[in-house]
Amino acid sequence: SLSNTVEGPLVESSACIYVLTYRLPLVTTFDAEARKYRFQWLSFDADNKSQESGGDKAGVMRSVSRHGTYITENLRSLRSRCKVMYVGGLACDVPREYRDQVTEDLAAQFQCVPVFLEAAEAQRFEDFCHGTLKPVFHFVQPTSKDMCKSYEKGGQDGNRWQLYCSVNLKFVEAVVQNFNDGDFVFAFDLELMMTPTLVGSRARSANICFFFNTPFPSSEIFRAIPVRKEILRSLLNADMIQFHCFTYARHFLTNCSTLLGIEYKPTRGGLLQLNYNGHQVHVRACHVGIDAQTVTTRLQEDKVIQQQKHWRDKFAAMGRSVIILGYDDMEPLSGINLKLNALHRLLTLFPEYQNKILLVQVGIKLYDRQGEVMHQDYIDSVSTRARELEADFPGCILFLSEKMAFARRTALFSMSDMYCNSSIRHGLSLVPFEYVLACASCPGAKSGSLVISEFAACSRVIPGTMKVNPSRDGDFARAIHRTLEQPLLERKHWQQQQSAWCSHNTVQLWAETIVVDMQKVRSSIISAGGTLRSGAHRVGLTKSTYKEISTHTLKLDWVYSALAHSHLQRLVLVDVDLLIRPKDEMRESAKAALLRSLMTLAVEGNTHVFLLSSERRDLLLQWLGDLQGLEHVGLAA
After folding, report:
1. If I label 526, which of 41, 137, 415, 551 is the partner at 20 to 30 A Cα–Cα?
2. For residue 319, what is the DSSP state?
3. In this predicted model, what pLDDT tens digit does every residue of 538-549 receive, in sequence order?
4. Coil, helix or strand for 102?
5. Long-range contacts from 115-122, C-beta under 8 angstroms, 24+ separation
6. From residue 527, how far is each of 13, 524, 530, 627 by CA, in Å?
């Protein structure tokens, strides 16, 4: 638990951590004059500069999780103790002629290894992750026709699950090229769920941790996914799996029990252990914090104080004394309409607040890879509901569509009486932590309170939070009213408790505790005489067209030597999935030459050929066609 001080050995200085994330925490710009790409960490300073010049267009790409990227960037703090290397993609398409230079610059200046995807490939991959996987992991039943077709083979736009696995392989290859025995691998989120098995099959001594910044669905939802077992088997090749909320960890454990028949047991240190084919997997539930020291220091800047005056004067001019704040992405899972419904009910039930309350709702638009606004229908519905609310209770809402810079954002936080979150599902949101520190550390700040949806993971860890079900607008409205009516002494008490929690449970402590726990688990396995991953633990775990079970390349002279010395009986095992990649794109001439070679081997008297594949038997036979001598070949598919 993060509430305890890290005990035992600290992170070893010789350790190396590879952080796998779909998007590197970098701001990328192209210098047209110098004809080169320039980079900067996605830190508060970079955020300030981009937002101050971006205006309303300063939105967020769907492939960039503001909260998840913040966590991965802050893992840089571990560089004072060990080596940290980032592996991930960039937020823009880099032409081929610039890629070598970009790779060199990122390695030398930022210790990052870029993974380049073609524009069409990245578009389809993100469509699959955000259109198919994300809804399911946020408890949306996968029943649509398009969603089910994403897993089919040979569909109109190809097998997107196969594409998903191939993209994961590209991230893994960047790790394996530089890997040393015992290195740590941290893989993040839905985009990279196949990396644990792909890393483990190539680097058996890797200490792998997989992080979920999203919820994990219950078994009723998750088992509807056609590739449910493949996902679980891959995740179980990690050494540790990290959730921000125990509810989501419990859902994962239930799925392992229901689908794979694997039960868990508690271990020392608050971890839960699963034994999968002899491989020990530990599950950890602990919510991340933020860099409290940096935030608190920056809250004393003159820019913040100037913005405080701006907001104070603005609210006074509007004649409103009670400020409720909402700060959300413009997507259906944020539940902004539910918040507006609750405000309408609040002003109806408690008319004394009609001329006092102002809801400042900040909505951050999300953009796809082409720069088009996402969820436009939802944005229109929110705008319509806001206009209806304004018509019934004039002056009760101020809607801002922008992603604010640090000073403007935290000044607004400090001038509000309450932060209100109405998300339908949210695995990770760091806004409440920043709100707490802004109210506690900004000069002249109000004693703000928190009203947070019970479906947001952070509602379980911040003390004194008023938890609500946003779908029950009556209860939601009364919870807001009770919070506003709290005595000042009680408000200050909970503010002190919340500030102390956020100041102690930082992202740095969270990351270091995970590394130390992984070191302890690995040491205990070795001291008990156990072994790390063996080849037997990996068989059958990677069911994709792109599987590779060995980290070594087969050399022709080895094959010729083996054939020369095998005078009695020969057994030739051919992995069709690995040999033909992908089958649909193979030229007919190359296919014919390959099959002729296989049949030449098969008809030799002392040679037995077996074809191995994860494809269905009927599909593989269809691909082989009317091949002469096929009766001499064994088939395992």
Report:
1. 551
2. T
3. 333 333 333 333
4. helix
5. 115/87, 115/88, 115/89, 115/170, 115/171, 115/174, 116/89, 116/90, 117/89, 117/167, 117/170, 118/93, 119/93, 119/369, 121/163, 121/167, 122/89, 122/93, 122/369
6. 21, 5, 7, 54
Q: Is 367 in contact with 60 (CB distance < 8 Å)?
A: yes
Q: At what angle do helices 66-74 and 507-527 cross, to 10 degrees?
A: 60
Q: What is the dihedral of CA 551, 557, 561, 563, to 10 degrees?
A: 80
pLDDT tens track for 273-305: 998 888 889 999 999 999 999 999 999 999 999
Please tell me the distance from the alpha carbon of residue 79 to that of residue 95, in angstroms, as a whole number. 31
- pTM across the whole model: 0.79
How many whole angstroms separate alpha carbon 315 and alpha carbon 256? 52
CB 396 within 8 A of CB 347: yes
Cα 387 to Cα 332, 364, 378, distances in angstroms: 18, 18, 14
The span from the CA of 277 to the CA of 537, in Å, is 6
Residue-wise pLDDT for 467-518, tens only, equals 999 999 999 999 999 999 999 999 999 999 999 999 999 998 998 888 888 8
Torsion angle defined by CA atoms of residues 159, 160, 161 and 164, in that order, rounded to the nearest 10 degrees:
130
Give the residue carrying structure tokens 């403007």: 408
Residues belonging to the chain? 637
| Whole-number Å distance between alpha carbons of 372 and 424 | 24
Average pLDDT over residues 330-341: 93
- Give Rg (Cα) of the chain: 27
CB 424 within 8 A of CB 470: yes
Query: Per the omega criterion (within 30 degrees of 0), is the bond before 25 cis?
Result: no
Asked whether 215 and 458 are in contact (CB, 8 A), the reply is: no
Provide the edge-to-edge strand list for the sheet that holds 184-188: 112-114, 83-89, 16-23, 184-188, 207-211, 240-243, 279-285, 272-276, 264-266
Give the H or E element holding residue 148: helix 145-149
Q: Hey, how many other C-beta atoms are within 10 angstroms of the C-beta on 23? A: 20
